[in-house]
Amino acid sequence: MSVVGEVASKPVGTTPQSLAGPGAPGRAAAPPAGGGQHGSPGHPHSAHLPRRLPRWARFADTPSRLRGLLVGLLVLTAAFGLLCWNAGSGAQSTWSAVTSSQAPQVIDAGALYQSLTDQDAQTANILVDGDNPALAGNLATALKTYSADRVSADRALQAATLSAAGDAAVQQSLGAVLDDMGSYDDLAARAMELNEHAKAGSGRPDPDALSEYRQATDLMQTALLPAADRLLQADNAAFNDAYNSRRSDLTDAEVATLALGGLLLLSLLGVQGWLLLRYRRVFNPPMAAATLLTVLLLGLACTLYPDERTALHTARRDAFDSVVALDRARAVSYDANADESRYVLDQDRREQYQQSFFSDSQQLADLSSATSVFSYDAPLRAAIDDYQADHARIDFGGFLGAEFHNITFPGERAAAEATLTAYQKYQLDDRHLRALMTSGQLGAAVAYNTSLAPGGSNADFALYDAALTKLIAINDDAYQNAAASGRSELSDRLPLLAGGSLVVMVLCLLGARPRLAEYRR
Predict the structure, then answer these.
(1) pLDDT in the model for residue 125
(2) The pTM is what?
(3) Which of 347, 130, 324, 128 is CA-nearest to residue 243?
(4) Residue 183 and residue 227: Cα distance in Å, rounded?
(5) Residue 281: pLDDT over 70
(6) Which residue from 230, 278, 336, 357 has the least number of CB within 10 angstroms?
(7) Which residues contact residue 473 at a Cβ distance below 8 angstroms, ignoring those fewer than 6 apart?
(8) How far is CA 100 from CA 112, 157, 239, in A?
(9) How many domains does the chain have?
(10) Residue 32 in 3-state DSSP?
(11) Which of 354, 113, 331, 362 is closest to 225 using CA atoms?
(12) Which residues pair with 40 in a beta bridge?
C-alpha cells in the first residue's frame, strides 16, 4: 500500500505525532487525554494553581477562629448590657410615671371626693344652725369650712384635669363632675341665701331654702359623688395596670438576663479553655478578670430585678392600697357626717338619711349581723373585743377592714387601732343624737350635732378624722419611701451595669490581643 493510501485511511484530525508510537525515536510522548493524573481537561498545568477554599473552611485557621470567638464575646456582652439598661430604664420610667402622675391622680380624685362630701355636710350645718346667736360660732365655722371645701374641690379638679390627658375613662368622669359642680354651687348658694333672708331658726329651715337644698343634695348623691368615685376608681385602675405590667416586664427581663448572662459566662469559660488547649498557656489574666466581672454583673442584675419588684409591691400593695381604701373611707365618713345634719335638718326625709348613714357605716366597717343603725353597735363592740384578743381575727369588712388586713409598717397598727376606737366613739355619738331627736329635743340635738366643744358630735368626728388622717399619712410616707428606694437603687446600679459591660468588652479585647499579635510577626 502506498504511503498516501495509508494516511488517508486514518481518522480525520489526527496529527503526525499521533501516528508515532510511544517508543518512536525522536518523538515526545503526548500527555494523557485527561490531562494527567491530577490535571483537568484543557489545562495541563492546573496542578500547580492555588485551589479556592469553600466558605466554611475559611475560619479553619487558628487566628480566624480566635477572631470569630472574640466577636461572639463582644456581641454577647453588648446584648447583656443593653438588656439590663433597657429593663432598668423601663423601671425608671415607671417610677417617674407613678410618682409624678398616677399616684397623684388617685390622691387628687380622693381629695375631690372628700371635699364634695364635706361641702354638702357644711351646707346642711349652715342651714340647721340657722339664725341662732347661741350657735353663731358653729355657724361661722361651717361657713369657713364650706369655702375651704370649694377651693379644695376646685384645685383637686384642676389637678386631675391636667394629669388625665389621654385617659378617656378618666376624662369622661371629670366631665361629669365639672358639669354638676356648678349646678350644685348654685343650688346650695340659693338655699343658704333664702334661709338667711328668712332668718330661720336652728333646726327649722325656710321651706324654700329646704327645697333648694334637697335638689342640691340629691344632685350630690346621685350625680356628683358617683362621678367622683368613678374618677377615683379609674385613676386607681390605671395605676394598678401600670404596676402589673411593670412587674411582669421585670420578671421577663430577669429570665432573659439569666439566660443571656449565663450564656456569656459559659462562652468566656469556653474561650479560655480553647486558649489553654491551643496555646498551652495556663492563665489569661484579662479573660479571667472579664469572667469574674461578668459573675459580679450577673449577680448585680439578678438581685436588682427582685429588689425592684419588692419596692413596687411595697409601694403599691402594702402602702398605696391602704391609701386608696382610707381615702375612700374618709370621703364616706364625711358623707355619713352630712347624713346626720340632713337627718336633723329635714324631718320628712329622716328615714332616708338614717338609712344612708347606716349604708355609709357598712362601707366603713361592714358587720354582717347588723341590719340597721340601731343594731350596729353590739357587733362592732364584739368585733373590736375579738380583735384585741387575737389580732388575726378581723370580723369586720369595709374600708377599715381592708386596712386591718394590710397592716405592714411600724406604727401602723397602733394608728389603725386608734382610728377604730375613735370611729366607735363617733358611732355612739350618733345614737345619742338620734335619741335627742326622738325625744323631741330639737335644740339640744342641733347644738350637739354641730358642736366642736369636747364631747360634741362634730368634735368627736374631728378626732376620728384626725386619727384617720394620721393613718393615711403613715401609708403615704411608706409609699413615698418605697418609691424613692426603688428609684435610688436603679440610679446606683444602672451605671454600674452599663460601665461594667464596657469593661468586660475591653478585657476580652486585651485577652485576645497578644494571641492575635503572634500571627502578625
Answers:
(1) 92
(2) 0.78
(3) 324
(4) 14
(5) no
(6) 278
(7) none
(8) 18, 16, 12
(9) 1
(10) coil
(11) 113
(12) 43
Contact 307, 489 (CB under 8 A): yes
- For the record, the C-alpha cell of 403 comes out as 386596712
**Rounded Cα gap, residues 248 and 312, in angstroms:** 11
User: Which amino acid appears at position 440 of this protein?
Assistant: G
How many CB atoms are located within 10 Å of the residue 491 CB? 12
pLDDT digits (tens, 9 = 90+) for 325-356: 999 999 999 999 999 999 999 989 999 999 99
Q: Of the spans 227-236, 278-287, 490-499, which averages the highest pLDDT?
A: 490-499
Take residue 490 and report the three cell numbers written for it.
Answer: 436603679
Give pLDDT tens digits for 27-48: 444 444 444 444 444 444 444 4
Is residue 129 situated within a structural domain? Answer: yes
**Whether residue 122 has pLDDT greater than 90:** yes
Task: List the domain range (segments joined by +) for residue 191.
Answer: 68-520
Classify residue 30 by its DSSP letter.
Answer: P
CB neighbour class for 317 (10 Å; exposed up to 12, middle 13-18, buried from 19): middle
Mind listing the pLDDT tens digit for each residue in 57-78? 444 567 778 788 888 899 999 9
For residue 345, being part of any structural domain is answered with yes
Calculate Rg over the CA atoms of the chain: 43
| Count of all residues that appear for the chain in the document | 521
Task: For residue 81, give the nearest of 505, 507, 398, 406 by alpha carbon.
Answer: 505
What is the rounded CA–CA span in Å between residue 308 and residue 312?
A: 6
Query: d(Cα 443, Cα 446) in Å, to the nearest integer?
Result: 5
SS3 280: coil
Q: Tell me if 42 is assigned to some domain.
A: no
Q: For 43, which DSSP code?
A: B
What single DSSP character describes residue 51?
Answer: P
Residue from 43, 135, 216 nearest 143 by CA: 135
- The answer for residues whose C-beta is within 8 angstroms of residue 339's C-beta and 6 or more apart is 353, 354, 356, 357, 360
Residue 40 DSSP class = B
511 pLDDT above the threshold of 50: yes
Three-state secondary-structure class, residue 35:
coil
Measured CA to CA, the distance from residue 468 to residue 12 in angstroms comes to 120
Q: In whole angstroms, what is the distance from residue 481 CA to residue 432 CA?
A: 43
| Inter-residue contact 344 to 312 (CB < 8 Å) | no
* Side chain identity at residue 357, one-letter code: F
Q: 3-state SS of the chain: helix, strand, coil percent to 5?
A: 80, 0, 20
DSSP conformation letters of 213-236 = HHHHHHHIIIIIHHHHHHHHHHHH
Asked whether residue 49 is domain-assigned, the answer is no
Distance CA 439, CA 333 (A): 26
